[in-house]
Amino acid sequence: MRRDGSNILITLDEWLAAGLSYNMYEHDRRRGYLRTANRGCNGHEVEIIWQSIVKESRKAAIVGRWGNPESVCGSSQLAESVAPDAAAQEFYGSYLLPDGRHLPAERIAEYTANVEVLKAIEMAIKSRGSSRRALGNSSRRLLAELTDAANRLDRTAFPHSLPTAERRMRDVLKRYHEEGYMAFVHKNFTNKHAAKVDDGVKESVVTELLSDARNFDNEQVSLLYNLFAKKMGWKPISASAVGVWRNKLYLVSYAGRRGETAFRNRHAMQVKRASPSRPLYFWTADGWDVELLYQHSGTDRNGHSVTTYHNRLTVVVVLDPCEKYPVGYAIGDHETPELIRDAFRDAANHTAALFGQRHRAHQLQTDHYAAKALAPLYSLMAGKYTPARVRNAKAKVVEPYFLRLNKKYCQLMPNWSGFGLTSQKDSQPNVDYINAHRHDFPDRAGVARQIALIMEAERAAKREGYLARWRGTPEADRLPLRSEDYLYFFGADTGRKNLLQGGGVQPTIEGVRRDYDCFDLRFREHYGVQWTVRYDPDDLSEALAVNDDGTLRFLLREKHVQPMALHERKDGDGAALSEVMQYNKMLEAAITERRAASGEAVQRLVEDNPQLSDTLTKLLLVDSRGQHKDRRNAPRGRKRVEAITAEELEAVPALLPTGRTCVEVEAEESIYNLM
């Protein structure tokens, strides 16, 4: 059964299935009681024109079996003309209700189907006449048929909610033309008629009461709001209504109730970071008040001996998140800039123990404690210093590391003091047990040993993995720490000044006089400088000479001691002596070169200024080859004798040094000149 233009066609099989016989078909066809749309040959099935059937009994049988062909074919034709509407799908899918919610999925499908079916109905109306005539009283039958066809559609494929009555369908069409897609959004979704907090001012009052730092409960908020409501003529609200609003305004009110820091750490968007893949790419440092108690005996202000048992030490740890390796640490009574400096000194020396040379990190992150005073140190130990945002504990991975150490090591020791103040009471140690065993607590030195053992145990457990990662670090990514920089920031000093002498710089360190020198040619240009000598107590093989304002720095090496007797020479003595001789040769060459340059400059000055010729004579200025007379005689027209023969030399024996031959004198290019 199908529609072909204005005709509805019924196949012969459908005729027979309705209980009508083939003889009835032949009888009605011959007498003109029905007409066919084709002859039923060449593989085509015979189709009977529904409108041509004369006998009502035949129509009744078909309707009883298949339904009214007008409606059935109208529904089928309507289904074929329904086209997907991507714009409607996008509109309803992205539509937001006043409270910020999206439409439910079933409503999105329903409203989209309404638009698609309604557009198909409009298309069918326009195909049979103008919209105005179709919606007029004379064409109600057409709209009724289309309404009936719409309601016969499969609701699984077309889940629309269009009306079943022609009059209501006409109202929907009119509203759709006026409001567009919004015509189908159910008004219950935006209904605020039953709400008591129904405008922005009332909602603002509730928001401020819920955000108050005093953390009012629902009853208190209800009481305070109703004081406003009574004076403003608003409807009062209950505590249960406040509970609904508390859920709605949870995010807005949280910062006021719990504080900005808690809001950022708990509800603001967090950045997820990955640990560095190689050592020294990133370091972080922080202080930890270790949860290990020690006893300390002292005297109070009244002179009484008092022993306390609540004392704790602090360790500053420089942590490499790669393998969670503690590169450096220092133990003290509390966190200070000096203790932080000691931790980084340990980090620098530990990298030398691991990698054969001191290294610095690519990036360092710490909190803001003493950041201004320690900025030069941080810049030395890392290529880039990036302090964490104030009160952003999550930025510092070292704090979770301390918690892990507390659980892994400290909690196993009898002098463990527990977790932080915010921890649950059930996880804290038994106070009665601590008091009963407080006399067994170690002293300060004992706790320091405990902490050192913990840190060394961590290093031992992770050293192999850390070194394996280091072996994969590209050479270009390794940042050595110069000895000069290390000694300048971490070196100790003697407290006295030293002058440079022929034997170098000779400071007295820990009661022993030591000799240092520098192979930098510039060092000997500063004979008048008072030098401060910085040194590493653990390695006195080198030191750093620094002037008062730190603008001059020279790395010194401890002088090699040469034996006087050649018989006592050992390996390395010859190389050390050769190095000194080579240095002196370079020093003399540098001085000669500098003198030559200055001599040439003065020569050009005199030649360009004749009035200075007498000055040349008086000052006996030599040229770059050490000559003076040639320069003096040239303006007077005197000539130099280029060479002296053996016969001429024998004629003037007084000019020859004793024991020297003429050939030797000539070979050495002596400077005997005839006047």
Q: Helix coverage percent of residues?
A: 40-55%
| Average pLDDT number | 82
- Biggest beta sheet attributes: 6 strands, mixed
> Which shape, going by the Cα principal axes?
elongated
Number of beta strands:
18
Count of alpha and pi helical runs: 25
Rg over CA atoms, rounded to whole Å, is 52 Å
Terminal residue distance: 142 Å
The helix/strand class is alpha+beta
pLDDT < 50 runs, ≥5 residues:
130-138, 636-641, 652-675
Q: How much strand?
A: 5-15%
Task: Give a summary of the structure in a few sentences.
Helices cover 44% and strands 14% of the residues. It contains 25 helices and 18 strands.
Structure description:
This protein is of the alpha+beta class and 675 residues long. The strands form five sheets. Strands 4, 7, 8, 9, 10 and 11 form a six-stranded mixed β-sheet that branches. The protein has a five-stranded antiparallel β-sheet with strand order 12-16-17-18-15, with helices on one face. The longest helix is centred in the C-terminal third of the chain and has 36 residues, at 573-608. The relative contact order is 0.04. Residues 130-138, 636-641 and 652-675 have low confidence and may be disordered.
Which characteristics define this entry?
single chain; 675 residues; alpha+beta; 6-stranded mixed sheet; 5-stranded antiparallel sheet; 18 strands; 14% strand; elongated; disordered C terminus
Secondary-structure blueprint:
Blueprint: E1 2-4, E2 7-11, H1 12-17, H2 22-31, E3 47-49, H3 56-66, H4 69-81, H5 86-94, H6 105-128, H7 131-135, H8 140-151, H9 166-179, H10 200-210, H11 218-232, H12 239-248, H13 250-258, H14 260-266, E4 283-289, E5 294-299, E6 305-311, E7 314-320, E8 325-332, H15 337-355, E9 359-365, H16 371-381, E10 382-385, H17 398-408, H18 431-436, H19 444-471, E11 479-480, H20 483-490, E12 492-498, E13 508-509, E14 512-513, E15 516-517, E16 531-536, E17 539-546, E18 553-558, H21 573-608, H22 613-619, H23 629-633, H24 646-651, H25 662-667
Parallel strand pairs: 4-9, 9-10
Antiparallel strand pairs: 1-2, 2-3, 4-7, 5-6, 7-8, 9-11, 12-16, 13-14, 15-18, 16-17, 17-18
